[in-house]
Amino acid sequence: MKNSIRKSIRILCISMVVIVFITTLLLCSLSNNNHIFSLQNIICLIILIIIADIFSNIVAKMIVNPLKKMEKGMRSVADGKIVEAKQLKEYGNLKEIDDTIEAYRLMMALIKKNNFDLNSQQSKTEIILEHMADGVIAFSISRQVVHMNKAAIRLLNLDSSEDTFEKIVKKLDIQIDFDKLMYLPNYTTYEVKLSVEDNALNIVFIPFFSDKLTPMGVIMMIRNITESVRLDNMRKDFIANISHELKTPLTSIKGYSETMMNGDLTYQEVIKFSKVINQEANRMGRLASDLLQLSRFDSKTVNWKKVQFPLNEMTTKVCEKMKFEAEEKRHTLEFFASDKNPMVYADKDSIEQVIMNILSNSIKYTPDGGNIKVYDGCINERAYIKVIDNGIGIPQKDLGRIYERFYRADKARSRQMGGTGLGLSIVKEIIEGMDGTIDIKSEVNKGTEVVITLPTKAPKKIGG
Ligand SMILES: Nc1ncnc2c1ncn2[C@@H]1O[C@H](COP(=O)(O)OP(=O)(O)OP(=O)(O)O)[C@@H](O)[C@H]1O
Ligand SMILES: [Mg+2]
């Protein structure tokens, strides 16, 4: 049977008082020959026992109460709360107890500091995980999800019922063995690429260990690689397109020049073949200069010379330049100049190139005898220029892609017209550099409308 300290102290004190009292009485009775169990002695003994009990109770309290509080404090620590040592001091004055309280205080201070470090580390980790662009899922050894951040839910399109390793890999159709991943020494990580909805994802499974030997679970890292896959594909397409665009004119030049070298040609044939060679060489030259211009945009080495100039004059000049091309196809090309004669703040040569490009598209992609109208004006302190044709139009499915390099809605016609498919991508780069906008609406066999807006004056300097 267990004895409490309080009970033991009381028993000890009372026993000592009784022993001392009886021994004293015995000694007295031997010398005086008195009876030791007289009423007087018994009353004395009872009074002494009561005093000893009260005294032992006080002493027991002085020892037991701080111990009890310390025990309560330690239990609170187990529940995550801290009890301050100063609350124990009221029972002080015993050196050993004070020393124990001091030791308790030091221990609590250390636990408090460790708790604080741990909590701040934990909240830091949680914040990082929650705000990461990459998805992270942690699985316990029992294959349950123990942590999953928002990015993982979004990228894998998970719901709350998908809370185990099996459910998640099954949903993604990944062939992976959890046990192999955890226990085979040379099977350390597993990487897989897949697409979920419109996203390309790179997923890595990594086992984690408490020490070097005890497996604790698996971490799944999910990275959205859609943009890099898109850029990679674009780069591959771009190289394939350049090779193709160079090969076509080169084949013609080679063929015609070889025929000419073989001799036996009439003068007319020589002129005809030379014209083709010249056309193809021009086409290659245009391709080279378009590519050079695009590479300057990419490397951000373009030096815009922005100035304010009247739009009517610029548009009239371009329409004049394009008149011959339009007449060749018997188009009517009309310019409806605004009375307001809006000003434009932009790089003059680049805007000329933009209008020429848009007009040349309208001329090229409108069957002979078409109608091309050009308007300009000013709305809400923005200058605009609008080109409307009644040509072949652009199918809706191509509208979103016509600014891509080498993209052509009507490949055969564009090539036949000598187009490289780079015109609108250059236009877009220039318009963005001028803080302008471009909007193209089109309907197949009805026509196309291109609207460009540009700032009318230089932007206000901040603080100026
Ligand atoms: N006004 C238009 N009408 C019909 N289709 C158009 C029109 N403007 C552009 N397109 C389509 O958009 C594609 C891209 O135009 P873009 O100006 O970039 O290239 P391109 O005219 O083929 O070649 P480049 O301008 O380099 O000589 C064209 O190939 C054509 O299919
Ligand atoms: Mg063009």
Q: Please state the average pLDDT score.
A: 88
In the sheet with the most strands, the strands line up as: 2-1-5-4-3
Largest sheet data = 5 strands, antiparallel
From the N-terminal CA to the C-terminal CA, the straight-line distance is 90 Å
Q: Assign the structural class, choosing from mainly alpha, mainly beta, alpha/beta, alpha+beta, or little secondary structure.
A: alpha+beta
Indicate the radius of gyration in whole angstroms.
46 Å
Second rung of CATH, namely the architecture of the largest domain: 2-Layer Sandwich
* Strand and helix order: HHHEEHHHEEEHHEHEEHEEHHHEE
Task: Describe it.
With 464 residues, this protein is an alpha+beta fold. It folds into 4 domains: 5-118, no CATH class; 132-224, PAS domain (Beta-Lactamase, 2-Layer Sandwich); 229-298, Signal transduction histidine kinase, dimerisation/phosphotransfer (DHp) domain (Helix Hairpins, Orthogonal Bundle); 306-455, Heat Shock Protein 90, CATH 3.30.565.10. 54% of the residues lie in helices and 19% in strands. The strands form 3 sheets. It has a 5-stranded antiparallel β-sheet with strand order 2-1-5-4-3. A hairpin with a 4-residue loop joins strand 1 and strand 2. The mean pLDDT is 88. The protein binds adenosine-5'-triphosphate and magnesium ion. Residues 357, 361-362, 365, 389, 391-394, 402, 408-410, 414, 419-424, 448 line the site of adenosine-5'-triphosphate. Magnesium ion (MG) binds next to helix 10.
